[in-house]
Give the backbone structure.
Amino acid sequence: MASTPTSISSSRFSSLYLSPTRISSNQLSLKPRSLPAAQTTRLASLSLPELPISVSPVLFSGKSLRIVGLSQPIRRPSSVDFPVVKAAAADADGHVEPAKSFGERFPALVTGFFFFTWYFLNVIFNILNKKVYNYFPYPYFVSVVHLLVGVVYCLVSWSVGLPKRAPIDRQLLMLLTPVAFCHALGHVMSNVSFAAVAVSFTHTIKALEPFFSASASQFVLGQQIPLSLWLSLAPVVIGVSMASLTELSFNWTGFVSAMISNIAFTYRSIYSKKAMTGMDSTNVYAYISIIALIVCIPPAVLIEGPQLMQYGFKDAIAKVGLHKFVSDLFWIGMFYHLYNQVATNTLERVAPLTHAVGNVLKRVFVIGFSIVVFGNRISTQTGIGTAIAIAGVAIYSLIKANLEEQKRKAALSSAS
């Protein structure tokens, strides 16, 4: 049935003309607003159909506009779908998802690049370091140069804020000093061994480091070492013994120095556990290098100082020239610092098992490349002994990594 036109008075029409007065995140309130007299007089003459009018609150949700009393939601204009560039695409809550970086898309490739860089820098350091000793056999002074170049590198990095220098107090200094002392002793003794014997033989002796580490953990720290770990160390000891008996470059200075280096680095690991702080590894290594440099200078001056001043520098410059001599010293220091820094960054990216395999492969790379570059002749027994020792280190590292992973999972399960 058709509706009958009805005349609406100005006061009644005024009550129909509504305007928004307050908008909040949850509700839109409406209230009447009066019209001017001229407009109400003109509108009063209009005839409009009588419609049931009810004012309902308007509610906003996250996705659509819904009016109480209506069955269908009214979508906001902003909800109309348009093609959007993927880089700026947003989810339902409005959060923009940033584009993934190259490292996030290809993590295995980036980790492999870190390993390659670590090995490359380490091999170059060992080769260049040994070449310097062939015409400048002063390992104490060369050790100081290694640390000095690294310290200068750290100071320059701090000056430009890459990374930002972390503050150090007296308590932290007391914790890091034993670590730095062991680091200095192990570093100097390694260089004494490098200068005295072939690089491959020094690294074969240094394969015994896990044995000293396990012994210190058992008898110094009181930690119970599983029988499987002790058994895995047997091939290491046997292999190193076989290689040492027939090593053509063997001498007691190189052998004893490498053994002292193993002991020093073992205690460095023990003190490092006691010096665990919230400081990042880059800053910790920088402070350790500074303290180690201070520790290394007095022995270098006392032991090699007179010889260096009398004929050490003169002989080296006469053999290779001043430019090459200074350049070689600078680059061995730079490669020493960079390979240690990249090694730290690499090992932070991988699991303990990968860490163990990476360390073993690094030693194999160094031994192999040093034999090729320097043409060192080794006996058959030395080669077999070296292979047995490296295999033993690999077995030990794998077993230890698995044990650490089991401990970590057990701790997580108990915490949850």
